[in-house]
Amino acid sequence: MFEIRMGEQGEIIMTGRLDAAQCDKALQFMDGVPAPRVVDLAGLDYVSSAGLGVRLKSQKRGMASGQGLRLVNANKHIRDIFKYAGFDRIFEIVPAGS
Amino acid sequence: MHPEATASVGLRAEALLQILEVTRRLAAPFELAEVLAEIGEAARSVLRGERATVWLFEPEQGALVLTGGPPGVPPIRANLSQGVLGLTARSRQVINVPDCKREPLFDPAVDLDVDNDVRCMLSVPLIERAQLVGVLQVVDSEQGAFSTEDERVAETLAAQCVVFIQRERMSRSLAQAEKLDREIKLAREIQMSTLPSEMPQLAEYDMAGQFCPADETGGDTFDLVPLDERRLFLLLGDASGHGIGPALSATQMTGMLRVALRLGADLDAIFAQVNNQLVEDLPEEHFVTAFFGVLDTDTHRVDYHAAGQGPLLHFQAATGACRWLSPTTFPLGFMKFPGIDPPHRIELAPGDILGLITDGVFECENPAGTMFGTAGVEQVLRTRHEGSMSDLLARLLQAVHVFADGHPQGDDITIVLLARRGETAGRTTIQRYFPRSLESLEGIFRFVGDFISARSLDAELHMPVCFIIEELFTNFMKYNAESTHDISLSLGHTPEQLTVRITAFDVDSFDVTHAPTVDTTKPLSERQAGGLGLHLVQQMADTLQYEYAERRSTITFTKALEAG
What we know:
Oligomer: heterodimer
Strand order of the largest sheet of chain A: 1-2-3-4-5
Structural class of chain A: alpha/beta
Number of helices of chain A: 3
Number of domains of chain B: 3
CATH superfamily of chain A: STAS domain
Structural class of chain B: alpha+beta
CATH topology of the largest domain in chain B: Phosphatase 2c, domain 1
Largest sheet of chain A: 5 strands, mixed
Largest sheet of chain B: 6 strands, antiparallel
CATH class of the largest domain in chain B: Alpha Beta
Helix content of chain A: 25-40%
Radius of gyration of chain A: 12 Å
Distance between the termini of chain B: 103 Å
CATH superfamily of the largest domain in chain B: PPM-type phosphatase domain
CATH topology of chain A: Transcription Regulator spoIIAA
Number of helices of chain B: 13
Number of strands of chain A: 5
Shape of chain A: globular
């Protein structure tokens, strides 16, 4: 199961598993949000490389408008993947609990 | 020339108008009795006779039948040798009898002379497309005898009547056929609804089952019922005959089995009880061939009874040979078993396949009259036994279809295939097939999770292993989209490492270990999403190997396990 929605502070909240089957859902949602700033990953268990593609696209869009994406509450697995992908140099990644 | 065309020339206008009026009236009723009554009345009035009767010809009995008497009076039957009536039918000519008393052929019993007072008669055959439909008889003309013009009027009228009789008969048989079609369709739906909607999942086993109905309802069925975590009940049945009956017998058997299993009955008891019940319920000439078996995934044994059901297929991977097993006893529903022999047993080695196949496959005929037979099955198995069972099943059905070469499917076809997987003995390796669809990802995720938790491996491995598998799986989907084979995923481990093998069949070579990857140090504006996944796979896997042979791509990767 993968869920994506807007939080009360205008942050985007993702929960569940973001695999290749769920990317269209995520992309559609992200495209419909005017200027995403913060993505809360506290409830996200898993992200695949296709899921990374979603972030990359959002980030390019955000940077074009002068705003980067902040990923908060990422678990270890997700942080590792972002690190392997070199995304830690592009996104501001805040681990869970800080 | 058409009879109407000749007859209508020179008819008196009054008679023509009356015939047209009859035609108009006959267009309305649909009940045969009404049609016949209308024809009789029309003939009487147009020909100005005293009475008129319409006999219908029944070709199966070679007899003429008169219905439409008072209620409760059975129809009168006459054979074609009797009276003027019989002569009319045999000669297919209009017979005008001016004086019945002097006509030696006249037979009061069939020529409707109940009170022995008939004076004259006009007897007219009802013919359509050279086939006798019936005979119209009119007696006692107002004018003393029927004229030659009356003969022609009668012929014209008869031609009209035949059309309506045939229309009524046709619409009746159509309505019956439609009703039967609806009932058969309903029986089909009931029959289909008792089949398993999805295959049970059992560690180390891959299975597939399918029922392909023939045009007419037949009596095939199958069921796969997990008894507990390690045992599976297998049923395959084929009720004799065609029509709704066999479908119901098959459905009944599935129902009995489910109830018996719920009550905790064992294989022998179920087999005996189902037989005894069928003996009581089935009509005498009917029977059901059936396979009742229980697979134990711990011992890899299938204990079974095969009542007239065979040959059963046991493909032995070690030798590549097919063993064909005979039924163990006579079909169900004949008579009660005097006593039950112990079940027979099949031992499944890794790679072995058990095939339950109804005779619709073996007896499938091509236009030359040759049967598909066990040889046809063996030929498909030779090249396809390593693939998934759903793939093998599809190949078998395809082979049967190609073999039949347009010859219609005469019988239901049902195939249940069960394969024992695992390349090494014991439980260190498990394998499963997944369809080429993103929807498989959730199942893969669970499959990996179950493997890791069942073997108490490091739970931290779950995410990275799934990440790598998802990447490889979706790559197989993307780069060989034309392949229809399921993708095989096997998981194994030693104390030191976890080994994952993923295989795609019937594909071109695509070496992931040499795929171009991305430079992750590049600025974002210069980076694309593509290639990133394979780069990550190379980063995350401890070892990564690619093999390509016989149009099979196999990728094997390992992750080290923490000691302890």
